[in-house]
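Input:
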Amino acid sequence: MSARIIDGKAFAANVRGEVAKHVSALKAEHDITPGLAVVLVGEDPASQVYVRNKGTQTLEAGMNSFEHKLDAATPEADLLALVEKLNADPAVHGILCQLPLPDHMNEDLVINAIAPEKDVDGFHISNVGLLGTGQKSMVPCTPLGCLMMLRDHHGSLSGLNAVVVGRSNIVGKPMANLLLRDSCTVTIAHSRTRDIEEVCRRADILVAAVGRPEMITGDWVGDGATVIDVGINRVPAPEKGEGKHKLVGDVHFDSAVEKAGAITPVPGGVGPMTIACLLANTLTACCRANGLPEPDGLTA
Ligand code: NDP
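Output:
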């Protein structure tokens, strides 16, 4: 049996379309335009690409995009002053500081300086606590994207066995909390987990967020399980020519697709959902800031 391939690219385009529709209505009915501020410190090439894509997609959704590029040597106090300014700016509904920050900056300090209601990455300690206690919060974009695809595929997730491999603060832990909130029975596996293959085989929903290329092979996947591959790993691809690379997930797609009921590919699975959910979070933050109802289906 071959699995249904969950098309994250199409799903993300749909989410962006929904966001754009709501933005257009906000403008027409309330004269409000959601605004996202993205702060980039330094010249990391991957971060520059992410920030460019975020800016383009923000504008395409009809929102305002405010980009702040700071020199790598910027003192931490200057970044904190900029965050304070953005916190106070009523035209800015979402603030994102692109990580990683340079070594001389304390990431926790900077993230926790962002006003929690504008923290569209969902990394502020208040949002982490709110999510952990099942309260309304800003939810980290990548896990939110995974949840949307899972809800779409399964309808209700209640009672399903979910295994999340990886316990990072940005993916594994919030993913597990979201699945728990949707009444899954959740196991978090990590580098010290015993019999991890057996643990994974028991999953109805298997989320891989490990950062190890193709670690999870088909024999780790239970018959008919839904596999969400968060991993993005750049590996050599000599078959494409000398010095060429390709992207692979944490799941060995070709073997897993034979066992799974549904699976996200890499690329074209979870990846495109992350920016789509950033836009959704900015819209949600804007609605909350203005006391307006939140758009259906775009929050956790
Ligand atoms: P981290 O490195 O922060 O965390 C990796 C986790 O995997 C850790 O909890 C670690 O366990 C666990 N792990 C490592 N090796 C093993 C192993 N052999 N067996 C079991 N568990 C293991 O990674 P992130 O969560 O930040 O990212 C995970 C992946 O997702 C990466 O490929 C990243 O590029 C990708 N990613 C994709 C995004 C997207 O938009 N699609 C967004 C964010 C990340 P321990 O804690 O015990 O060390």
